[in-house]
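Cross-posted from the bioinformatics board.
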Amino acid sequence: MYAYDQYDQAMVDARVAEFRDQCERRLAGKLSEDQFKPLRLMNGLYLQLHAYMLRVAIPYGTLNGGQMCVLADIAEKYDRGYGHFTTRQNIQYNWIKLEDAADILADLAKVEMHAIQTSGNCIRNISSDHFAGAAADEVADPRPYAELLRQWSSFHPEFSYLPRKFKICVIASENDRAAMRLHDIGIRIVERDGELGAQFYVGGGMGRTPMIAPLIRDFVPLDQLVTYSEACLRVYNRYGRRDNKYKARIKILVHELGAEEYTRQVEEEFAHLLDQGVEPPLAELERIKGYFRDPDMPDAGQEADRSDPDFAVWLDHNTHAHKMPGYVSAIVSLKPVGGIPGDATAAQMRVLADLAERYSFDELRIMHTQNVVLPHVRKADLYALWQALNEAGMGTPNADLMGDIIACPGLDYCSLANARSIPIAQRISQRFAANGKEAALGELKLKISGCINACGHHHAGHIGILGVDRKGTENYQLLLGGSEAEDTSLAKITGPGFDELGIVDAVETAADVYLRERTEGERFLDTYRRIGMAPFKEALYD
Amino acid sequence: MTEQVPLRLREDEACMEPAVTLEAFGGQTNAVAVRIEPGEDTRELLPHLDRLRRIDIAFPAFTDGRGYSAARILREAGFTGELRAVGDVLVDQIAYMRRCGFDAFDPDASLDPDDVEAALNRFPQVYQSAADARTPIWSLRHQ
Amino acid sequence: MKLITGNDLKTGAVTWWTGDGWSIHIEDAADAGDEAEAIATREEAARRVNVPYVIEAEAGPDGAPRPAHIKERVRALGPTVRVDLTLKPDDPTAAQKVI
């Protein structure tokens, strides 16, 4: 994985010093809250429902054991012993003090981590495929491109006061495991006639106006990646709407101009920028790629022993095919039955760090589904790994099943939320663990947001739940038919909402319609697409 | 009494002519200073850069970043006159402004000189090529 | 009644206007009446509170003020899914009471 050189380190250290100074000026009254807010947000610091919250960047979701240990240390030293992994492959701490914020950033900088641009109206932490560099279906490891763009977007002088936040995702597979087309810019590295290049999808997103990004350029040569990105951003910075916060994302601009006209403007800006020398040389991309070489993975030629039936279940659900024979990527569930999706204690983080060092070449990934991946595990080590995970409460065999729920922090933590998300997730996972239907249902992606901003990706859930405020009480709308994968689709609302207990019943009702209607081999999503909304509505409301 | 721009990073004498609006500029062929508002298209000025000594770019709110693109576009087109950031210009944004080509600042509220000094010298290097003369890190790595 | 709530600038802790200062316990909160907005503005300017705002509340069953909206009731307690981290870690019904 990437390692800082003296330049990267100096930049991050300077950022810590800058933010320390800004915090001091805020505490001394030299900065008003209005002036300070964009600065603290660009350092990951929110003022949430109960306290300050710090969002730490995990670039493209990759980190090593030592870094995970520091995340654990921070949880204990500055917070309340735990952290929350997010749908943006980051980690959030919920109980931070402003007076500690700069010290935390300094601790992070010692292990080449930071909280730069994890919030604010700027280019955010760049996300990627959690199986990057390990999956068998990639044309390349997408992370060097993400790292190139990370450096380009860090402290970008022109694009730090954009109309709204800006999220970029880079993948390199036809199979989309990162919701690529639901980003402001989704980049897919592709191969054409033996050459690698980048597809640019621009103007996707969730939030209150969900949109699937259209393809605006099918092939950007690798030595024009930064220039093309710069052109996309400049058109947005100049013409994105600033009169209405809710219409300020690039998806609205692309939608209002039309993809064709937006593309024309980008191409015109791109042609101009090609002469401006903004593109790093290919040698820089090669330098970065050097950090992402495969570890030496000799084929031990051994399959996992499936004789323990509980282990076999975990194997079937929580491992993913690796490009190297004898290896898999293992999914660590942060979704125990009745637990808080994505939360991990400091002790669990240390276990993960230790297991990464022992079994996965000291590498971990954070998934947008709020789980953790050990990317390169020898099949022969899986049983020992599974036992250690179980001991730490992280061996639940539920990847992509009903219990693997994405949930935003909701009204328990978030100042924007209208309703609580976590208790709904807890009730549903308990219900389906008790009724035994989870295994029969198979792949079913349930995603819960506590407000229209859609941090819980409810638009992209096979089943989605949206919490709303109905006359001061929590109410939950049910949505069906979304997908964040390569077959991207947006879920549709079934009808009137439900209360806290009603929504759990409604999810079970929808699941039962699927179990009744499915044909051989169909997932929930496939059945929904075949039979449509009507049978579900009938079961839910008649 | 001589007027002074509160912060100027140029050696030449300041042009203190009043700036005309972009709309008025079209009809006033003798104007040497013009003021751009956030919603206006800076590129309308490109055919006339050689007769302009100063361009003011307005920041009605520091969170409106359109002026950063406006400044870069002017510098990319070869404008060498004074580029002045005017309005809600705060110390925590001036380093980025300078990178985009601004070399004078006329803020609504005066800036603390020590804070200005710290802000302009904070980052030892830069990650991007922009409108200033700084060599980006990617270039330093491959010299 | 009208309460003023905000966060402590340094620690971020949720605080409530008591009539002569700020407390993390809503039980200490005082009705700020018609002066609420003026008090909030004054206290924010003095940095004794950050981002204060005025809410409606009524006297609750236990005598403590009960905010009209669930959001401030959650603010007053802490996360309902982690009662151990709230201001009432020993009250198993604390979460139920805010709903």
